Amino acid sequence: MAKLVIIDDEAAILELMSKLCRAAGHTVFGCTTGVDGMAAIRTQQPDLVIVDLRIGDVNGLDLVSMCQEQFPNTAVIMVTGHGSVETAVEAMRLGAFDYLTKPFDLGDLIKTVNQALNRNNPNASAASLTPSLATVRSTTSSKLIGHSDAIQRIFEIVRRVADNDSPVLLEGEFGVGKHMVARALHEASRRNSAPFKELQCSAMPEDALEAELFGHTNGAGGIFSRANGGTVHLAEVHVLPQRIQAQLNTFLDEMQSRRSAWNTSNSGSDFRLVVSTTICLEEASQKAIFREDLYYKLSVVPLKIPPLRERREDIKPLVDHFLRELSDRTDSRAKSIDAYALEFLEKYSWPGNVSELRNAVERACAFAENDRIRPADLPTKVSQQIEVPTSATSSGITQLPIGSTLDDFIRGQERLFIQETLKYNNGSREKTASMLGVSIATLYRKMGLNVDRKTTA
Fold this sequence. Notes:
By secondary structure, the chain is an alpha/beta fold. The chain has 4 domains: 1-118, Response regulator (Rossmann fold, 3-Layer(aba) Sandwich); 146-306, 3-Layer(aba) Sandwich (Rossmann fold); 309-386, Helicase, Ruva Protein, domain 3 (Orthogonal Bundle); 404-447, Arc Repressor Mutant, subunit A (Orthogonal Bundle). 46% of the residues lie in helices and 14% in strands. It contains 20 helices and 14 strands. It has helices at 11-23, 34-44, 60-70, 85-94, 106-117, 130-134, 149-161, 178-187, 206-214, 223-226, 242-262, 281-286, 292-298, 315-330, 339-347, 353-367, 380-383, 406-424, 429-436, 440-447; strands at residues 3-7, 27-31, 48-52, 75-80, 98-101, 168-171, 196-200, 231-235, 272-277, 301-304, 336-337, 372-373, 385-389, 397-401. The strands form 4 sheets. The protein has a 5-stranded parallel β-sheet with strand order 2-1-3-4-5, with helices on both faces. Strands 7-8-9-6-10 form a 5-stranded parallel β-sheet. The radius of gyration is 28 Å and the shape is globular. It starts with a strand and ends in a 10-residue tail after the last helix.
């Protein structure tokens, strides 16, 4: 097959990438330093280099430049963290074929490798990627998890529209799993052996975003051409500047015209478009924040992803999935979770949704002893909140901050009681002090006010 040099100073990631590429039939030379990597490139003259953007002794961009100048026939794939997408786009300008954002899907690695190796053979069959993907299909993180009616409806919609090439609009709060739904659409479709490309529209300035979408001045293609035959997911599409909205609108019109004229996918940019947003895009279009004509093009299949607090029955299967995922990643025995700890997780409101839950489980695994997660292992904001009835005769619920001192709790409840009594007395502090049976000076002290302030009669 092909000869690859992989350079990454994280030994575990280097080993994983090397293992996958060897399983795909390639010869791999792994290096943990930039100096060793450059030496391997000069000695082996590989077909492909995979390099991390941040290596301890060498800047990954320097390696891209060196390959472009000295070995122009060697393709380069940049690996970068979420916070370095703009720099990865700079790598594209320098001649890199593509980039992968950590944590990347294992299937995406193999697909991008094959696409880079076949870059001079546009007629290479996408089906040729299937054997190598078979070894990683079981490890993909694209599976949708949940038992709730809401998530089951999403499963059904994904199944029904997977092979429909109409654009899909995903709406939902941060962390609800829009990325997972986009990937599930791709994996369930006939395009699943072609690339899945994702772009965070808020991750880079306007000029870099324009280049990444529509191509670079050095001739490198944009994300749509690199995903040819596959799926493009534009996340946070609502932040696109008006100028780029207009360009995207025109671009989609041109793609549609070519497909209609040729009645074929051989237009050079055959892709399925999925976009996602954390706001109501229809309202944004009505307020002229987002182009109305572009909104209608993108929302052919609208799909709203509900927040985790509205589907609490999905928390347990998600926790079980994250525990298995962490076990596979660390090559260790999966931890279990105490029933009381799970109860805390199921009662928490999860403002960060599935992403916050994943982080909480990972944190708990780091602190857990004897392979069992208990309430004390959970994040403080989760484990220190319990719900109790407000009184024996009331159906109301209040939360108690377990873990705080008794004095702090009493002071907090005392101040709350004073505030409610003040409201009852229309703000009169004299009436409130009399009703509570304390002096006006005591009332002011407990409220944190100066005694010399005038009272309200």
